[in-house]
Each structure stands twice: as structure tokens, then as C-alpha cells.
Design brief:
Strand content: 15-25%
Order of helices and strands: EHEHEEHEHEEH
Number of helices: 5
Number of strands: 7
Structural class: alpha/beta
Distance between the termini: 8 Å
Shape: globular
Helix content: 25-40%
Length: 164
């Protein structure tokens, strides 16, 4: 598959920092047009503008109590609507990747927690996009700020390898 566009949708300040890292890691051998946009910017446009040459990368931050940031919540609520048909994203035109950024320091039991425990928003979105028929480009990525977000770099490398 040959991609010409990458739309990075971020929800939260930490997610914006990671989105900028994704752009900075773009290989010089790719000529993809990359756009970064807030998750609060009309999520329906993502469906309207999706096609075989556009990949959509969601980078969403989970904050306290397993909640999305204000702007990330807009996108999550849109895709979780029960009124959407189950095949809303089918047909191979909606190709996505999801990376969660969380902080297990915000959890009560920090001793036994991992990135999986602080990325509920990304997990919910990834599961829902797949249920609606979207095509996953790379596996769900989950990172933890408490451990230095060491999971981010390998995920970014995998994303760029898939997009080339």
C-alpha cells in the first residue's frame, strides 16, 4: 500500500509532544504529507477525508480516573456513538494506528502497574475503530510516562516502516 498522507490526531499536551516526535522521525526517504490536528477538530472529517492513500494516527493521553483529556474525549465520544453502523469504517479506506500515552503515577497502586493500566482511552478507541471496520496499520501502542515512555520510539519506528 502506498500512502501519500498521514494525519496525526492528538489528545492532550503530552500527546502533542509525542505527535511532534513522530513527525521529527519521518524518514527522509518518504514524501508523505503530514498533518497534526487536535482531537477536538471535527472527528467526522476524518471519515469524510479517509481514502486508500491516507493513514490516520491517533495519539491519545489518558489522565486521572481513566478519562480522556478534554480534546481527546471529543474524538472518543464521536467514535463510541451507538448510532454508528457497524460497518462505518469498512472497505479498507479508514486505515489507523493508535498510541496511548499515560502516567501510572496517577494510579493508586504504582508498584504493580504498567503502561496497560494507564492507557484506557487508547484501548477503548483502538477496539472501537476495529469494531467499526477500520483497518489497523500497527498494533496498539501503550506508553507510561512514569517509566520514561520507552515504548514510544519502537512504536514510531514500526509506524514509519509500515507507511513506507
Amino acid at each position: 500500500m502506498s500512502f501519500t498522507n498521514l494525519i496525526i490526531v492528538y489528545g492532550g499536551e503530552l500527546a502533542l509532544d509525542v505527535a511532534e516526535r513522530v513527525v521529527a522521525k519521518q524518514p527522509s526517504s518518504t514524501s508523505l504529507s503530514v498533518t497534526i490536528q487536535s482531537a477536538s477538530e471535527r472527528p467526522k472529517k476524518l471519515i469524510d477525508n479517509s481514502n486508500e492513500t491516507t493513514a490516520i494516527c491517533f495519539i491519545l493521553q489518558t489522565i486521572e480516573n481513566a478519562c480522556a483529556t478534554e480534546d481527546g474525549g471529543t474524538t472518543l465520544r464521536f467514535f463510541k456513538r451507538k448510532t454508528h453502523p457497524s460497518d462505518l469504517l469498512s472497505g479498507g479506506k479508514f486505515q489507523f494506528a493508535v498510541l496511548g500515552v499515560g502516567d501510572s503515577n496517577l494510579l493508586l497502586d504504582r508498584q504493580t502497574t504498567s503502561a496497560k493500566d494507564c492507557n484506557q482511552v487508547a484501548q477503548e478507541l483502538d477496539e472501537r475503530l476495529e469494531a467499526l471496520g477500520g483497518s489497523k496499520l500497527v498494533e496498539l501502542g501503550m506508553s507510561d510516562e512514569r517509566t520514561g515512555m520507552e515504548e514510544v520510539e519502537p512504536w514510531i519506528e514500526e509506524l514509519w516502516a509500515r507507511l513506507q
